[in-house]
Amino acid sequence: MDSQRFSPDPVAIKIMVAGGFGVGKTTLVGAVSEIRPLRTEAMITERSEGVDDIGHVKDKSTTTVAMDFGRITLREGLSVYLFGTPGQDRFWFMWDELATGALGAVVMADTRRLADCFSSVDYFEERGLPFVVAVNCFDGAKRYDVDSVRVALDLDARVPVVLCDARRRESAKNALVTLVRHVLERTEPAA
Ligand SMILES: Nc1nc2c(ncn2[C@@H]2O[C@H](COP(=O)(O)OP(=O)(O)OP(=O)(O)O)[C@@H](O)[C@H]2O)c(=O)[nH]1
Ligand SMILES: [Mg+2]
């Protein structure tokens, strides 16, 4: 029997990776991508002093100025195209472009500066686009459980919150899988 005959058509979906400056968006896209990620990094110079808060990411020398792009196959026939946003407010004008056609978003958060992800959360809430919050657990940052983060961000109880290490493929992939499940739950008709 031809085993190909019953394979469902391949599906490609688009997901955004958003969040504040230096929270680990580029790191996450790079960790999971099975193609060489496209990056648009520019050097951080002293001109960003007083503009960008690099206090918690002191070894960071570059910042995303347009987008990150990567791809991961979550299972046979399901490809996810990842679009990482720039983290700084002055690149907001890129967001609507990047969000076109996206099925949902992973909003990354750092518990040392949770407020940095408020604008991303607002953006997706206002547009009714499903999202999950992925707390990037930086070394040395105090650990909080997911419920505390949900309360602090005043999230709807249905919005999944996961802890992750953006540098680790399986951990980052788990955030993406959680989002895809969340999107499916929202689109499946109630029984
Ligand atoms: N310890 C630790 N460092 C991390 C983690 N994720 C990212 N980093 C580091 O934190 C810095 C910020 O990472 P990026 O991936 O550039 O952050 P970004 O959100 O893309 O930054 P912008 O595009 O400038 O907004 C880099 O120096 C990473 O090596 C993590 O999970 N743990
Ligand atoms: Mg970046």
Backbone CA Rg: 17 Å
What's the average pLDDT? Answer: 92
Element string (H = helix, E = strand):
EHEEEEHEHEHEH
Please state roughly what percent of the residues sit in beta strands, choosing from under 5%, 5-15%, 15-25%, 25-35%, 35-45% or over 45%: 15-25%
How would you write the strand order of the largest sheet?
A: 4-5-1-6-7-8
Distinct ligand kinds = guanosine-5'-triphosphate, magnesium ion
Q: Share of helix among residues?
A: 25-40%
Largest sheet at a glance? 6 strands, mixed
Secondary structure class reads: alpha/beta
Number of helices: 5
- Low-confidence runs of at least 5 consecutive residues: none
The N- and C-terminal alpha carbons lie at a distance of 35 Å
Question: Per the principal axes of the C-alpha atoms, what is the gross shape?
Answer: globular
Oligomeric state of the chains in view: single chain
Please count the beta strands (DSSP E, at least 2 residues each): 8
Set out the fold topology.
Layout: E1 11-19, H1 25-32, E2 41-43, E3 62-64, E4 68-75, E5 78-84, H2 95-99, E6 104-109, H3 118-127, E7 131-136, H4 146-152, E8 161-164, H5 169-187
Parallel strand pairs: 1-5, 1-6, 6-7, 7-8
Antiparallel strand pairs: 2-3, 4-5
Helix pairs in contact: 1-5
Describe the structure.
With 191 residues, this protein is of the alpha/beta class. It is built from five helices and eight strands, in the order E-H-E-E-E-E-H-E-H-E-H-E-H. It has helices at 25-32, 95-99, 118-127, 146-152, 169-187; strands at 11-19, 41-43, 62-64, 68-75, 78-84, 104-109, 131-136, 161-164. The strands form two sheets. A six-stranded mixed β-sheet has the order 4-5-1-6-7-8, sandwiched between helices. Strands 2-3 form a two-stranded antiparallel ribbon. Helix 3 (118-127) links the parallel strand 6 and strand 7. The longest helix has 19 residues, at 169-187. The chain is globular. The mean pLDDT is 92. It binds guanosine-5'-triphosphate and magnesium ion. Guanosine-5'-triphosphate (GTP) is lined by residues 21-27, 57, 59-60, 63-64, 86-87, 136, 138-139, 165-167.
